Design the sequence.
């Protein structure tokens, strides 16, 4: 507060010397008030960097979610007018007026997925508990011609980029025109995504020149126009972001990354058979679609050009392992949060890699959690936790991440009825334990 004390002393001197000249005194006071605002701003900004916020889920206990907020619209691959929306996550009691905003895009190969899918919802909830404002966005899905899959995928990515840019512009517009209803800092907007959402985020940040627009993009076609920014809504505002996070995504060409671009943090499994860990082909249903530069290649480029970056690999892991593996989830969440918080708070030590982002919950989960039988060949599956003696709720999600049933239990054990489920892959989740595991029903 030493600076403020000095300002107070100067104001006293000015008032004493200018009492005989009210006009001069008014001008001096206005000048001094401007100085006070400038001096207080960094002090207030630094107060949020308390060593816990933006890095630990213990910052806040509960999260509220509001769904279906429209941010734009455009024509999809099938020529249909599509409304674009987002779900908004914030911690209960987090009344900060200028919070960093994370915009996250789901996966699904631009064919499926949703902004309430299990690949993004747990991340949204935990980021909100750390103090971020979080928006999980929808974007245009669909491929018109499966016989031209390579070019169709490029077009799908381009639609997604346009939608993501409209989402960023929406939030800046809301600050300027609507009184900042989301309580965000327009200078601290971060974008990230999972799988296809990672493609969206990476191309959003690093395709920033008209010459980089793919040649297969016909801007005269419905839904494809608008140049770099697109026409999905909210023109007149910047779509720049302060940083990017990428989970199992890729960029068409790493050379598009240039010095001075947004910083990048990535998490990728070394055995990813869908999106290559390094340079290779994107695969769909066993077919190679197009060659891209995966996370390892991107971070080699980042290192070469001096871009701020953080890259963590999960050895032996396949595609988006955080969805079904609790340890991979811990690595993914803490890596991203550690990097983002380092960029936001200069007082925080640099964090690139996994850390314990919570206290006793993770230790509790490490005790014996059992689900049997798996695969399930009968009508029931038993779920137990030897350390649990309270109430808890389990969810069964389908392969798209949608909740198809919910089960309440009290005590260490619960029996789930899966007799009505068609054969296939499911995920059992217990949010209270931060635990999820794949279930096969035969």
Sequence:
């Amino acid at each position: 507060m030493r600076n403020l004390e000095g300002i107070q002393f100067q104001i006293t001197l000015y008032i004493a010397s200018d009492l005989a000249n009210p006009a001069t005194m008014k001008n001096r006071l206005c000048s001094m008030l401007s100085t006070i605002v400038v001096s207080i701003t960094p002090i207030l900004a630094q107060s949020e960097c308390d060593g816990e916020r933006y890095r630990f889920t213990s910052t806040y206990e509960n999260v509220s979610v509001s769904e279906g907020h429209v941010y734009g619209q455009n024509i999809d691959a099938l020529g249909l007018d599509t409304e674009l929306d987002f779900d908004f996550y914030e911690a209960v009691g987090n009344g900060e007026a200028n919070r960093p905003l994370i915009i996250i895009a789901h996966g699904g190969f631009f064919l499926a997925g949703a902004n309430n899918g299990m690949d993004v919802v747990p991340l949204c909830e935990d980021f909100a508990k750390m103090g971020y404002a979080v928006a999980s966005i929808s974007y245009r899905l669909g491929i018109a011609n499966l016989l031209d899959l390579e070019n169709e995928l490029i077009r799908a990515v381009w639609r997604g980029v346009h939608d993501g840019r409209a989402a960023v512009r929406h939030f800046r517009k809301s600050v300027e025109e609507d009184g900042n209803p989301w309580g965000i800092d327009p200078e601290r907007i971060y974008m990230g995504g999972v799988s296809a959402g990672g493609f969206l985020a990476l191309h959003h940040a690093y395709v920033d020149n008209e010459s980089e627009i793919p040649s297969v993009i016909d801007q005269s076609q419905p839904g494809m126009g608008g140049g770099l920014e697109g026409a999905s809504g909210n023109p007149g505002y910047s779509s720049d972001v302060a940083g990017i996070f990428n989970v199992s995504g890729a960029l068409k060409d790493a050379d598009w990354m240039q010095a001075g671009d947004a910083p990048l943090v990535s998490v990728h499994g070394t055995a990813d058979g869908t999106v290559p860990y390094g340079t290779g082909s994107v695969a769909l249903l066993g077919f190679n679609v197009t060659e891209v530069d995966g996370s390892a290649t991107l971070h080699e480029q980042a290192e070469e050009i001096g871009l701020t970056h953080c890259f963590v690999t999960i050895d032996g892991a396949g595609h988006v392992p955080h969805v079904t593996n609790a340890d991979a989830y811990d690595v993914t969440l803490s890596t991203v949060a550690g990097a983002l918080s380092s960029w936001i708070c200069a007082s925080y030590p640099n964090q690139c890699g996994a850390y314990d982002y919570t206290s006793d919950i993770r230790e509790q989960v490490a005790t014996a959690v059992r689900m049997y039988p798996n695969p399930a060949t009968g009508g029931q599956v038993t779920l137990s936790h030897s350390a649990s003696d309270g109430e808890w709720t389990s969810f069964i999600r389908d392969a798209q991440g949608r909740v198809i049933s919910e089960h309440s239990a009290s005590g260490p054990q619960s029996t789930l009825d899966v007799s009505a489920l068609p054969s296939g892959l499911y995920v059992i989740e217990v949010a209270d334990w931060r635990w999820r595991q794949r279930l096969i029903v035969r």
The chain is about 30% helix and 30% strand. Residues 367-441 form a domain with the Immunoglobulin-like fold (CATH 2.60.40.3080). Helices lie at 2-18, 22-47, 121-130, 149-178, 196-206, 295-305, 326-344, 360-366.
